[in-house]
């Protein structure tokens, strides 16, 4: 019992250090020029996408009049991508900017030495950084998502229904997890790389790989495993080819996120996998309820959360095992 | 000993094939100022990191205030302040804010933090720059803020790693007097690592000389000097005018002189006793003017030179010194080898 109390006391002291670090990191981010740049970038793209969506909305309404409010987030118009696709592409940038010099920046400026000499557990440092970064991400994402909705209401006169609000909230939660994954990755690189320039370059390379090259590689690999060069092969292999390409693509968090978000924001999406004609036979065209949409993308959400945790765990283990000395 | 506050017990750290610290046995008394002297790469910083529990020793253990530095590192860090070399601060925060942050990390109450930070800034003479961002601070200012930062937790033990590096002479003087004050007035224990010996020897009660991961000598500075003085060999550097064979013969006939070697304008006289009185009398009688007379090997200067300038060179150089001992051609090198061997023996025992 006494040992338990001692352990508990130790934990509360640890939390005091964590709290101080968390508050400091949060204040640092909020007052930094970097955060200002992020905010500017997100504002410009969001309002550009809102403008595009509003101009394309009447066209979209003619083809399908339900869940119009959600279309504010998914419609692209005037060749401006939709809010959802903008975030899928640029969201990682927020995570990267917040984390790429988390550890090596401290190491370079000589503050890490001083920090670890304080009576705090070493993991408080990296946990504090990750939590503060995630908080900033959540603040940014939710303010932007809500602002888009608010301006959408003002601009179009549409009032969102309860289900639409819930779907948007789930979309924003997804976005937070997705961007936090990139925060975790960038912190991981900041632990591995000595210089913050190297870590920034590495994480940007990974971002470009996942958002552009992964789909190319997936189609090449699928084509090699299930060739479809003539009609006969196409008949035999098309199902395997498509499924393999899809699964390979889903390794990329970019694809995983895009797929999940389009399912959540479009109730008309009924399946995320291949559907054969025989499976569709007798199906009544209609919208999925929120619960069913969520069920469809539940693996995506857990997958993204697992990726995020894996990235952070890598950073955590790397940091805990690393030598502290600067040279 | 009950008033020993820092104790290491066969502390060893191996990085790959390199042994950074080799079976270090150190004990530092409460209230003492201990200087850990050694050239770069001697293992001083590694020792300090192990004392703070930031690096795990390969074998052996270290204790501060009776607590194991590796297992109870949080408790140890609560009573030990560490001033790293190249101390850094968050450049976007003011000096005062940096101190507040350290106070919060130590779990101090907010009023205590404010009061103490203000008092400490005054103590290190930084109250004018308190509200400036630390990004604008000079190296010397950072060092002083670093000391205030260390004192935020009111530590019993202060460990400073190369605190005198890159400080101007005026800043150095202030730093040294501050160190003295921390020890004498506040009764704190100081462990200072450095390779700049002159500054450090002014404030240290005891020094340990650290080369290649081993502590080769440890004790009061005067005591270390006497260890060298008690060597059987004395070496004089001498230049006289006029210099001719008659003078050389006269010198070599002084009782106790073992060898006289001419190196350009200077003479190196090796003897088994202090021959300075006899030498001056002889030279005076011969009508010579003494231009330069210097006893080598007997002062700290010589110890330092031997260990710190030569530590970069390899061990085989050392063994060559041993081989040269006794050859009249290189009496300096021979002596160097002897002192080294002797010090090593003392370091081990």
Would you mind describing this structure in some detail?
- The complex is a heterodimer of chains A (327) and B (349).
- Chain A is mainly α and 327 residues long.
- Chain A has one domain.
- Helix content of chain A is 80%, strand content 0%.
- Chain A has 13 helices and no strands.
- In chain A, helix 2 packs across helix 7 and helix 4 runs antiparallel to helix 7.
- The longest helix of chain A has 35 residues.
- Chain A starts with a helix and ends in a 6-residue tail after the last helix.
- The mean pLDDT of chain A is 84.
- Chain B has 349 residues and is an alpha/beta fold.
- Chain B has 2 domains: 209 residues, P-loop containing nucleotide triphosphate hydrolases (Rossmann fold, 3-Layer(aba) Sandwich); 119 residues, Alpha-Beta Plaits (2-Layer Sandwich), CATH 3.30.70.
- Chain B has 13 helices and 14 strands.
- In chain B, strand 12 and strand 13 form a beta hairpin.
- The longest helix of chain B is centred in the last third of the chain and has 18 residues.
- The two termini of chain B are 18 Å apart.
- At the A-B interface, helix 1 and helix 6 of A face helix 1, helix 2, strand 6 and helix 3 of B.
List the helices and strands and how they pair.
The complex is a heterodimer of chains A (327) and B (349).
Chain A: H1 2-31, H2 33-63, H3 68-74, H4 83-99, H5 104-109, H6 111-116, H7 122-156, H8 162-192, H9 196-225, H10 231-249, H11 253-265, H12 277-280, H13 290-321
Helix pairs in contact in A: 1-7, 2-3, 2-4, 2-7, 4-7, 4-8, 4-9, 4-11, 7-8, 7-13, 8-9, 8-11, 8-13, 9-10, 11-13
Chain B: E1 4-15, E2 18-29, E3 33-37, H1 44-51, E4 59-64, E5 67-68, H2 73-79, E6 80-83, H3 95-105, H4 110-123, H5 139-151, E7 157-161, H6 169-184, E8 189-194, H7 197-203, E9 206-211, E10 214-219, H8 221-229, E11 234-241, H9 245-252, E12 257-263, E13 266-271, H10 276-285, E14 289-296, H11 300-310, H12 315-324, H13 331-348
Parallel strand pairs in B: 3-8, 3-9, 6-7, 7-8
Antiparallel strand pairs in B: 1-2, 1-4, 4-5, 9-10, 11-13, 11-14, 12-13
Helix pairs in contact in B: 3-4, 4-5, 6-7, 12-13
